[in-house]
Design brief:
Four copies of one chain form a homotetramer. Chain A has eleven helices and 18 strands. Chain A has one domain: Chorismate synthase, AroC fold (4-Layer Sandwich), CATH 3.60.150.10. Helix content of chain A is about 35%, strand content about 20%. The interface between A and B is large, with 105 and 106 residues. Chains A, B, C, D: It comes from Saccharibacillus kuerlensis.
């Protein structure tokens, strides 16, 4: 039984909740680092008002005592800071009131789950859809991923990411060491390493905003320090690259995912794609390149894992799109719920988080163990096995 | 408990086996159609010798009686036709013999699971890796997908696919009705709709072969006739687009997957990306376009599902790549195991199969039921509910 | 993907938390009925002080709006009312303090998970084990089960239970209609139907308490109104009776479970055990008896489901048992943590709850559907199918 | 992702098939020992004709090469030796023929899944139910369990079992060392340790047979050599005793399961039930008794695991029971399909097998690892950790 988690909560409800199950005991939790991840998700040029009013914070209400995990499930809560304004609209118990007082939604927005969710769940108030399908939920997924990240860091596995494209502005390629990539993107308003690109993207976002439009982009996540052998080819659902693909595609608004050179692999020749195998006594087996992004046969090969995902523009628009009222079946121009023109930098943080989770899960499947001490010993074992191979 | 399956078997072992669990009773099996899918996988310009010698066939050895499913698990067997030549090399029981007689592999091929699998499973004969990690396994995954396809077809859901690119040759865009797309690609040696492109691709593959190289490509799968409401946004692992992403990425040699306009969504503006909602009494809700490829919020929206995947070039090469012998740690030029220069048309069929599976699984989760009759009644219910929404 | 749930929380932590995932939309929640189940768990002759101080209450913090489920995951919180006294001892973040201030436990109690949990998770403070392994967690499992129960009740499925034995005092057999059984046990301090037995059991518990000992017992759960066809024989893990067995055995302190006549089936002859099949046009197929407790081949047969479980005496004792200090390895007489002499009536409520969950899960697997309306239509379909069989 | 398996196949179909997924590499398979387990299942006083005609044998057709596992899924086949007589009746493809030629069953047998399965799956030929619901499937479950057993034996974990009761004849209690228990039960026609009991049981079975009746019984399984710490209390579905309960209850005809003293725990006082904790430097922690059957809090405590299950009499009867024809709705006396009067000794072997599986699964979850070498090292680690605790 692997690491697993469930989340609950609505965007304007009292809180987001997650239960993380299967974490080992004796992992020292860095609370500041945990909340730093939530902060990272909230930053980014182009975010709307909401990001300013809320300073998210993950509270742990189970599974951690005196700063360490106990092996018990970990309950995480991210409170919604403006819940006080929504207690009636989102009341758990029945209320009296007009549609307006309940802020009933009957006008589905294109590009959202509104209409499909309403049809599927037979809900005539589409607020019941949008409250859950909102990307607000990623706040708690980031908290979950932050726990996974702390587990991985204890074994020297580090995760970084960068924005590669926002709309028409692409960042130039770089091959920076991960540490530098992390420090530079952390300093950037749009999570890019290149300052000139940053300026261009900011200006571009300003323009998009002015046009009443929105824009998406491409983000990349890099995981370094992974041992050879996470994931497996033996069954389709053990392939770690495929699990990462699911995790990335499950992020709100993501429409594609690729590993290594990804779609470029459909153009190049075999002799240009594969990573030659080298060996030296100091480093063991290594590769001359990393076009396959750290995976062969669904298993990590010891090279950095490189994943890219594409986020579509946020569908909420000042510039309206045609839609249909579910009450009257009359056409209208789709309403605006929020005001972000670009959430790509935040999406970069979310992607790091979901990738961290999948890697941690595969890590625990590989090494077993119930306490950090036991996992450490098992991990060292395996390292020795690799050296003696 | 959902539809599920497991496969077993090695590329040169006696057989591939699959058990499919959770299929309803009273589905009439079209055996010819089942084997036609296996045949489709074997065709395609650029395949090597093996595809000719073996005419794959899926035998059912459980779960079907007198031509109909019974609700019991279905066991599928795809025999390996040249097993007779491998009975010693792949013997289940211990044999005496030299490394050569056992065809022991100690020279890992870049781009394969060989080395990583050997390290992970502590196997000194890499044949134990490559026999399972080989794409041969997709034969039985196609058989599994063919069952899913027959289930879906009973509800008017149809699946087609096409090759969009082979290496440097891209097919021009088309917007053909699915029927025509299917009949044209079926007639094509490279599964494209355009004859001129076909010729160019054939010539290109010939050249690649002559150069001792290999080439990948991009394939697309289209599913039509899906009801609104498969998959869900309520939890990350219920999103059907994400499950499809996992399934596609789990196909051997796939390095990327996208839905709808996919990576292009990172470039365009919101006003160019989202599909406006229309309504008429005859058709109910529909969309003015299908840029999102049939999904919003991880749920089907009634438009065709459009998925694309990229396959890297087959790593097996006449043109050698550097690698390292695991016995001696000496460098060598990687050996050749097989001779396909291009397997993209086959990959197109495999992708249809794994997508069919994920859709069928989500379909049964939505409609429940244990017999085809019961599912039909539930399905009709839901259709009525949608009409009355 | 089925109905599922996870729980988190410690016995003296701030709260118990559960996330319930997969519930349909548009189920009207009866909050009073939900909390009534928690109250039922707290009652019962023989409970210690804690049961008095805490009046448990389940708060919903996600997945329900204006009194109805939305299809989104439901988050449940049961606060710990005396958390204020434990904020230091159970602090999430690191604290300074002596072992005594931290209430560190180094003396494992026989019959608890203390020692095994400490060894497994490499925990030197056994409080980290006992806080999670405590039966306190059943409070939130009852809340989870209460949701399942409300789902089932909407389809006329009712669940009751009774205590059959407390230590040496067995209740006489009865064959009461479920309604009467429920009303009588609800009025009883020990959840028996027979008043004389109640008195005997109370006196027995008093004696046990006076002796500084503890006592367990046997409880029975009955589910009526189930349709034929929940669960399946087609795979070992689809058998509903077996899933119920797991659920019951997973209740703290349970050591056995039986269905129908259970262990008596090992003594009787076949002709005395099986339930003859009858038919009339009004009732359809029915049985002349219910020795098999509602199951044949792991599927419900339309007769009431009858499950029994045995609870061992609570290991916490005034009367000490030998154990070993994990610091000094010296023997000692096991300490007392709580003061319940008998928790069998509460266990009866917990058993109803976990059985309700398993039945609801199988129910949704059978009928599919995302909203109550859709499930209702599917259910009615199936009823018609049964009638026409 | 844990060890898992699926089975397929009908009692008169060509074969039973299983796929076992998640076994480590480099486990040396003892083929003779594997088939010995199948033979054990076939023996036993009171079995009918079929047991004589078929000598079951499990063939491996995937996942094992040159006598060792490779980490790939293992495919197992148990052929049905009299398939040749059933090729028409059980034909996979449609056949022409009368109901009689198809051996259509329309008369459901009480105590079987026949009627409920027919109603659930909307099957008018109940053969489609009984072919899968038959206990014949346990042949391949025994094969699956035999693999688990070989894994466990490599770590010194041994499994034995005994028959404790057949109908009215109970075996006297014994406290034999496991080795002796195994050798004595292996020599017994009814799998008891006591010769006099054996004679009584044989005579009893003869009488039952003569009376045209059938009889069940109680069986016990013992697992020795388990480390402390398999399973967990942290979540209801990680408790190993509960998983074992599901596995045992899922065996055909089982109606109850208990651990340790089981239902007796409802009668005794706490001071009589719990196992005191002892310690010595040589043995580490141990217990003064084993009333809890090796589990506290759902975790193994290092004492032998003791599980008992009850099997009801085989419902197939010479002595008829009333039932109803599904075509005519007319009452009839239930037909006879097979002729075993008592299958309790076989059930004892099946129970050992399913318990072995659950233990092996929990073992791999605890120790992780992909090869036997790696698991061994992890296991040794943990042993050292326990010693140093």
């Amino acid at each position: 039984m692997s690491l697993r988690y469930l989340t609950a909560g609505e965007t304007h409800g009292p809180q987001l909740t997650a239960i993380v199950e299967g974490m080992p005991s004796n992992l020292r939790i860095d609370f500041e680092a945990l909340n730093f991840q939530l902060l990272r998700r909230q930053k980014g040029y182009g975010r709307g008002r909401r990001m300013q009013i809320e300073q998210d914070r993950a509270d742990i209400v189970g599974g951690v005592r005196h700063g360490q995990t106990t092996g018990a499930p970990i309950a995480l809560v991210v409170a919604n800071n403006d819940w006080k304004h929504w207690t009636k609209i989102m009341n758990i118990e029945p209320i009296e009131g007009t549609d307006e007082e309940k802020r009933r939604v009957h006008r589905p927005r294109p590009g959202h789950a509104d209409l499909n969710g309403g049809l599927k769940y037979d809900l005539k108030d589409l607020r019941n859809v949008l409250e859950r399908s909102s990307a607000r939920e990623t706040a708690v997924r980031v908290a979950v991923g932050a726990l996974a990240r702390q587990l991985l860091e204890a074994f020297g596995i580090r995760i970084g990411g960068q924005v590669l494209r926002i709309g028409e502005i692409a960042a130039p390629a770089n091959n920076l060491p991960l540490d530098e990539l992390i420090s530079r993107t952390e300093a950037s308003s749009v999570r890019v390493v290149d300052e000139e690109t940053e300026k261009k993207m900011e200006a571009y976002i300003d323009q998009i905003k002015k046009d009443g439009d929105s824009v998406g982009g491409i983000v990349e996540c890099i995981v370094e320090g992974l041992p050879v052998g996470l994931g497996s080819y033996v069954q389709y659902d053990r392939k770690l690259d495929a699990r990462i693909a699911q995790a990335v595609m499950s992020i709100n608004a993501f429409k594609g995912v690729e590993i290594g050179i990804g779609f470029e692999a459909g153009i190049l020749r075999g002799s240009q794609v594969h990573d030659e195998i080298l060996y030296s006594e100091e480093t063991g087996y290594t590769r001359a390149s990393n076009r396959l992004g750290g995976f062969e046969g669904g298993i990590t090969n010891g090279m950095p894992v490189v994943v890219r995902g594409v986020m579509k523009p946020i569908p909420t628009l000042y510039k309206p799109l045609r839609s249909v009222d579910i009450d009257t079946k009359e056409a209208f121009n789709a309403q605006v719920e929020r005001s972000d023109a670009c959430a790509v930098p935040a999406a970069s943080v979310v992607m790091e988080s979901v990738v961290a989770w999948e890697v941690a899960k595969a890590f625990l499947e590989k090494f077993g163990g119930d306490s950090m001490e036991e996992i450490r010993a098992n991990y060292d074992n395996y390292k020795r096995q690799l050296e003696n191979y």
